[in-house]
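Entry 12.
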Amino acid sequence: MIPRLALLLCAAAAAAPAFAADTRPPTEFSADWDDPRTAEPKIVRPDIRHCTVEIVRHGFADFEPYRQAFTPPADCPGPWHKVVLDMEGGVKGRQYDRMGQISVGGVTILRTSTPEPSREGIRWQVEKDVSAYAPLFTRAQPVVMELGNLVNETYTGVFDIRATLTFYPADATHAPAVSAEHIVPLDGAHRAGADMVGGFTLPADATRLVAEVYANGSGGGCEEFWYLSVPRKEYSCPSEYGPYRELQVLIDGKVAGLAAPYPHIYTGGWSNPFLWYAIPAPHTFDLHPQRFELTPFIGLLNDGKPHELRVRVVGLAHDATGWTLLPNLQIWRDPKGARTRGALTSHVLGQPAREDAFSEEDGRTVLRSSGAGELTLAGWVETSTGRRDIEVAYQVGMRSRHDWDKEESDDRLKAEWTDRQQVTIRAAGQAPQVEERALAFSLDGGIRTVPEAGNPRLTTDLVIQANASTRRQQGDAPAIWIQVENRFQGEAGYTQKVPREQRRATGHSRQDFRMTDSAGNCQAHRLATVNGYFTEDDTTCVR
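Predicted 3D structure (tokens):
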């Protein structure tokens, strides 16, 4: 379901001071730089009574998860109008970027990665509206944060993390947040080759079922850069199936949903941490999950028996590693507790379309790749309020041009992905309701290394586009829509094989965020940096 506009149209992020007119940024990176921040908008927080519960306070210096018990705030009992997760971090010295997540009751509510620190130290903040997870917070639950980190004489950075949940109770003017009645992890979730597999038993009165999956390639190996994979062994990241990846959810062995995985770039990514010190790539600190509408399957699943849910990344070898897959199930139930009936009436899985074509152009190897997937589902569910017929259509696709020279000293990629999901609901006496979600993201850039004064100098340039839109229409009524455009552009270079203080690193970056909606609202935020310091921070919305 598309969230209400009130939940999405957030107040613009408070502008931090940029360089004064008579002050210039340094000519190259120093031992310190500005704390990282992004152009994504701040969450709107209602000016009402609220309560804050600390769920994490820990210095991560090894691979041991942090554990704590969560207890609902007695002074702010549910239902809640909004619940906000705030995470603050600090690190100094020398350290790689690390991946982590916070779970409550075994369900991931935040998947994140960290910035790389300066010698003097940095701090950063992440906030997320977690109102959709409200059922998890109604009772005592275990909280686990995983943020594996290696600390030794060389890598000295300890990640000091504090995370809180702030609860805003619903009242006469602030409606309760919309969420499922139950949110659960998979039973006995485990790896089966490259897949994540687990079980579940659906209540007999289930009326809607959604799977949510946090999925990302990580771990420092080639699957962190899966979009650069080449089906030839002579390239440094070979993959039998090339660069096409597709996320699939299967129920009892039948494909039930498709998605295009997002090409996450972490703060050490593309061989150049200097590009990300001040502005990370979109979705780096808050990795967004994919959602799959599984309601057409309810008639096959609410029989009181255990069923299997499997998450698979198409394009991986069976025993491949390097992907993190974190699924949960969100379940809506009949308000009268009535047993529901239903059936899956249509299931059409399109034949996968993948193609890789090589050529030699101007002394460079060129790989042109494309891929696409389609799935359409139809079914019905009968509840105490009547029958609903549901159709779900998925379409995913990608195309890319990847070229490199013989030594891979000049390696370039231009790639784009599309991901569309449409849900149509028909109920007796009501006009059909159509909900559409469309994602479009792209990478356009390269890494080149040239000799300079006897040492290699590496330069990365990159443009990232991360666009999203949602649209809802019922019958002939005007459509309600939201459009998000999120663009990053930057370039950074440094000299390799020399002491850190001799790298002569330089770089500049920019992020432009713009959100518009069918009500005529417009919101924007622009950031720009030079050599690690912010030079622009503007929230003017230009139509």
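Annotation: The longest strand covers residues 364-383. The first helix runs from residue 5 to 8.
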